[in-house]
Amino acid sequence: MTNGKRAAFTIIELIVVIGVILVLAALVLATSSYVHNQGARSRAGAEIAAISAALENYKADNGVYVSASTNDPRTQGDPAAYQAASLTLYENLSGDFDNDRSPDSGKSFYMSFKPNQLSPGDQSQPVTFLKDPFGNSYGYSTINSTDPTKGYNPTFDLWSTAGAVDSSGTPDASGWIKNW
Questions:
Q1: Cα separation, 28 vs 145, whole angstroms
Q2: Is residue 4 part of a domain?
Q3: Which member of 22, 67, 78, 92 has the lowest number of beta carbons within 10 Å of its beta carbon?
Q4: Within its chain, how far is the Cα of 18 from the centroid?
């Protein structure tokens, strides 16, 4: 200090520094959300591949895929509409027909599901559907979507809406993760 003057930051300098910190924090948060969403999409894709492999094993033993004709993925965009077919898929692949989260004795077992793949999250409650990483039900169908009068597809459709919605809040099929 010379001549009685003190060295200090001015209010303008402090405001600039705080503004820069806020901009950087916003960029980090935006990137974090994007990375989290991409991670969930990757996990959903991996889970769909694993469930598809279990379905192929099921078909090898039973001659047909697990039957669930309640959903046409092109006309049903609401994940809540998929819960019954998702539960049927869970029961047949896990061998847990009483939905108590453990395979029933004498039932065929094709896949074990992690607790975070089942809804509800409370492990003491019965399973109600298979849950995707976005918290929605996986969609599953064996209905022939081009002509329902022809019966079941020789294959199956398995999908996640990936939480994608359009501006009106309706699920947006362009962002779905699917096996077809």
A1: 43
A2: no
A3: 22
A4: 38
**Quick check: 72 and 110 in contact, CB under 8 A?**
no
Looking at the domain assignment, is residue 156 inside a domain? yes
Q: In CATH, what number is assigned to the domain containing residue 80?
A: 3.30.700
Q: What percent of the chain has pLDDT over 70?
A: 81
Question: What range defines the domain where residue 71 resides?
Answer: 45-178
* Total of domains in the chain: 1
Evaluate the omega torsion of the peptide bond into residue 120 and state whether it is cis, within 30 degrees of 0. yes
Tokens of 38: 């991409």
CB 85 within 8 A of CB 139: yes
The tens digit of pLDDT for each residue in 112-168 reads 999 999 988 888 899 999 999 988 888 888 876 555 555 555 778 888 888 776 666
Q: 137 in a domain, yes or no?
A: yes
Q: Is the dihedral of CA 52, 178, 160, 83 positive or negative?
A: negative
> Nearest to residue 134, comparing CAs of 119, 124, 123, 122?
119
- Indicate the SS3 state at residue 17: helix
Q: Read off the pLDDT of residues 11-38 as tens digits, 9 standing for 90 and up.
A: 898 999 999 999 999 988 888 888 888 8
Beta bridge partners of 14: none
Contact 128, 102 (CB under 8 A): no
Asked whether residue 55 is domain-assigned, the answer is: yes
